[in-house]
Amino acid sequence: xxxxxxxxxxxxxxxxxxxxxxxxxxxxxxxxxxxxxxxxxxxxxxxxxxxxxxxxxxxxxxxxxxxxxxxxxxxxxxxxxxxxxxxxxxxxxxxxxxxxxxxxxxxxxxxxxxxxxxxxxxxxxxxxxxxxxxxxxxxxxxxxxxxxxxxxxxxxxxxxxxxxxxxxxxxxxxxxxxxxxxxxxxxxxxxxxxxxxxxxxxxxxxxxxxxxxxxxxxxxxxxxxxxxxxxxxxxxxxxxxxxxxxxxxxxxxxxxxxxxxxxxxxxxxxxxxxxxxxxxxxxxxxxxxxxxxxxxxxxxxxxxxxxxxxxxxxxxxxxxxxxxxxxxxxxxxxxxxxxxxxxxxxxxxxxxxxxxxxxxxxxxxxxxxxxxxxxxxxxxxxxxxxxxxxxxxxxxxxxxxxxxxxxxxxxxxxxxxxxxxxxxxxxxxxxxx
Length: 433
Hints:
Elements: H1 14-42, H2 47-69, E1 83-85, H3 90-100, H4 102-121, H5 123-126, H6 132-154, H7 166-185, H8 194-208, H9 237-266, H10 272-291, E2 297-299, H11 301-310, H12 315-330, H13 332-339, H14 343-368, H15 372-389, H16 400-406, H17 410-424, H18 428-432
Antiparallel strand pairs: 1-2
Helix pairs in contact: 1-2, 1-3, 1-12, 2-10, 2-12, 3-4, 4-9, 4-10, 6-9, 6-14, 6-15, 6-17, 7-8, 7-14, 8-14, 9-10, 9-11, 11-14, 12-13, 15-17
């Protein structure tokens, strides 16, 4: 793979960089705006205000991605990480918003983001409690946690009253087959554009099924600028504490994503400064996002799956995707076009991408070795983390705060259990065996 497109810092001409960057953005675009719409609905926010937050979210996500790719001071990893609005916070924000209003949501996000950012800057002092076996378990859990998301998209999307109708399955299948066919038949680096090709073919198929809605195109403004502090910040201690716990979960996912990208894309373990910079961006950019009325942003596992499948890691090309995302926030017509991508089309492409994360996690587990200690950490953390969160009622005896953090978040449960097991299991056991 001598083509610079496979190099992290390779110089790629613009005409080649744009399609690869666009592929990364399309893989996460719908998921980037969905959390805002969910929380906005929970707090009964007027549609026009929610729409303005979506515009701001795309700009902030683009800026966060650029900082990850091209670090500023100690902020950023320099790895091909794509940032977006995090689903992890949705359930907690819905509770906080219903109790105190959206002003408390953004207030807690500002404080929680600063705390996570500071935690990231000092990651080298606590990262030792997260050895490769913990990272491998978390990456595997991330892959498994994404599989239902891919399947739901394939069937028409969350909350769709016609979920599973034949048209969604047909469009999703056409998209998936197009991805596979292009990957098999294309030559050279063009193979790695299979997801973009599948999205294009699926989009055309969805259009003929009446699944593409461009009606908003005629009503949007030509240009739209985000508003600073559109909401008055409110600070409630219980809300801040609950949200900070979710920021810790987000940091966990970022560690897993950063580890997976480094191992799958660069064939090495991540460096301390990469972990530190990645978490710091998660936190501080999330605080910036909240100041513009948006939800926290984090590294997107969807794009980790894309790297796992294509081995494409060029940060300059991915940077063009970040610029496209910023332009989509500034020019609403472009945003409408990108967001018109039907869920079934996205599901057809992401189902294999998410599977690639699972396979990569299994490979990371294998690289850690099959000692009894490693097997115990991985087996117990994954079985409880994935198993218990598939039956969330098992958490009913716990306080609401604990349920909000862990009941449906297998990544958080796997991380906590893997860290605890790594600390309590005697390390001498491996040497004796």
